[in-house]
């Protein structure tokens, strides 16, 4: 299958190229960049030398012809491509936020008018596999919501309150240089940001509410000095006392056949560069608080890996094709 990656010169686009070039059923035929139009990909991303031998192009959206298109561009840019791809029935996985929320909520949170809105399934396969299977356009989830929702999903209906505390690597901010991501400001440091109103909160709230949960959901992210990875601690305050055995059964049951969920002590290094989400939990004495912790690689299960997982589903491939490899842990 021919694959086009729009926004290939970015961090998520780079990881998509790494995965697509190793995938047994796909050929990368188009990798776009405005700034690097005409430049060989491997000059810009030398780790891909010997694997990707095409040059970046900057085609008009109507000239993009591929079996599957990945949109790895910022929100508001993705919608400029999505309409044409959707009308032409081209299978598309959008890594941006443009189709993750109902239009009204999106416009409120992102402060923009959506110019090409249509409904798309939320591409978290562990919760929405059946809807994804039937669709040709998938809204790939945000990085924080992926780890957060998976950490609490098995017990969301028991929760009164869920407080998410996340630590993220710097690649989550993309490859644009900024004061926040400047080395001296990140190294040897931990910075909380958007303490009470991060734009991913509404994605978490919506998905948790779809799990028959009435919980109020709260979220505070922190920037930590690592390149890849998100560790999320979910403090789940329950409506009634629970037991460890009961909660263990729920996690084991919900994730029993999930190829990318591993119930084990979460360590960032165990998932770096992979599509795995590792999760563990403990129940506080008295049974009124479950502490669940998840780790993902923000560029993989949080972006490119999950996007390829979604591509596998909509193309009828084995869901794990091209994605089953362990981390290069220390
Ligand atoms: N980084 C992460 O951990 C995650 C990212 N995402 C989402 O994935 C998308 C890509 O993120 P990321 O790779 O980090 O971002 P980067 O900033 O690293 O890359 C952005 C890419 O989009 C291209 N681009 C930017 N503006 C335009 C435009 N107006 N028209 C066409 N192309 C454009 C850039 O190419 P050029 O400037 O060369 O033209 C570049 O290739 C975003 O929507 C992001 O929110 C989702 C989950 C996690
Ligand atoms: C460190 C950092 O800045 N992280 C980004 C993660 C957002 C992201 O990746 O965007 P998606 O909505 O497409 O998932 C942030 O907090 O906004």
Automatic annotation (TrEMBL):
Transmembrane domains' residue ranges: none
Localization annotation: Cytoplasm
Pfam families given in the database record: Semialdhyde_dh, Semialdhyde_dhC_1
Active site: 143
Main location: cytoplasm
InterPro entries named among the record's database cross-references: AGPR, AGPR_AS, AGPR_dimerisation_dom, AGPR_type-1, NAD(P)-bd_dom_sf, Semialdehyde_DH_NAD-bd
GO cellular component terms attached to this protein's record: cytoplasm
Keywords tagged on the record: Amino-acid biosynthesis, Arginine biosynthesis, Cytoplasm, NADP, Oxidoreductase
GO biological process, one term: L-arginine biosynthetic process
Documented EC number(s): 1.2.1.38
Molecular function terms from GO: N-acetyl-gamma-glutamyl-phosphate reductase activity; NAD binding; NADP+ binding
Residue ranges annotated for the Semialdehyde dehydrogenase NAD-binding domain, each copy included: 2-135
Annotated metabolic or biological route of this protein: Amino-acid biosynthesis; L-arginine biosynthesis; N(2)-acetyl-L-ornithine from L-glutamate: step 3/4
PANTHER family reported in the protein's UniProt record: N-ACETYL-GAMMA-GLUTAMYL-PHOSPHATE REDUCTASE, CHLOROPLASTIC-RELATED, N-ACETYL-GAMMA-GLUTAMYL-PHOSPHATE REDUCTASE, CHLOROPLASTIC-RELATED-RELATED
UniProt similarity note: Belongs to the NAGSA dehydrogenase family. Type 1 subfamily.
Name of the protein in question: N-acetyl-gamma-glutamyl-phosphate reductase
Gene: argC
């Amino acid at each position: 299958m021919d694959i086009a990656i729009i926004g290939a010169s970015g961090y998520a686009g780079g990881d998509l190229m790494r995965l697509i070039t190793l995938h047994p059923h796909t050929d990368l035929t188009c990798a776009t960049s405005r700034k690097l139009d005409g430049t060989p990909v491997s000059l810009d991303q030398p780790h891909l030398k010997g694997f990707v031998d095409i040059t970046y192009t900057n085609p008009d959206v109507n000239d993009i012809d591929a079996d599957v298109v990945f949109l790895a561009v910022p929100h508001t840019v993705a919608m400029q491509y999505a309409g044409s791809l959707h009308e032409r029935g081209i299978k598309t996985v959008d890594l941006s936020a443009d189709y993750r929320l109902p239009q009204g909520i999106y416009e409120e949170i992102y402060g923009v008018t959506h110019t090409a809105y249509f409904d798309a399934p939320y591409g978290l396969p562990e919760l929405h596999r059946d809807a994804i299977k039937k669709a040709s356009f998938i809204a790939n989830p945000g990085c924080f919501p992926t780890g957060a929702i998976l950490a609490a999903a098995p017990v969301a209906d028991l929760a009164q309150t869920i407080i998410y505390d996340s630590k993220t690597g710097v690649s989550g901010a993309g490859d644009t240089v900024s004061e926040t991501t400047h080395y001296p400001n990140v190294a040897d440091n931990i910075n909380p940001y958007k303490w009470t109103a991060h734009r991913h909160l509404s994605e978490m709230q919506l998905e948790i509410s779809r799990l028959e949960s009435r919980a109020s959901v709260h979220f505070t992210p922190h920037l930590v000095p690592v390149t890849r990875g998100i560790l999320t601690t979910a403090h789940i305050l329950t409506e009634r006392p629970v037991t460890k055995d009961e909660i263990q059964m729920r996690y084991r049951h919900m994730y029993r056949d999930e190829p990318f969920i591993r119930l084990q002590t979460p360590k960032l290094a165990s998932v770096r560069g992979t599509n795995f989400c590792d999760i563990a939990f403990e129940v506080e004495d008295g049974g009124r608080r479950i502490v669940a912790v998840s780790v993902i690689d923000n560029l993989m299960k949080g972006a490119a890996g999950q996007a390829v997982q979604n591509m596998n589903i909509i193309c009828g491939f084995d869901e794990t094709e091209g994605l089953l490899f362990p981390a290069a842990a220390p």
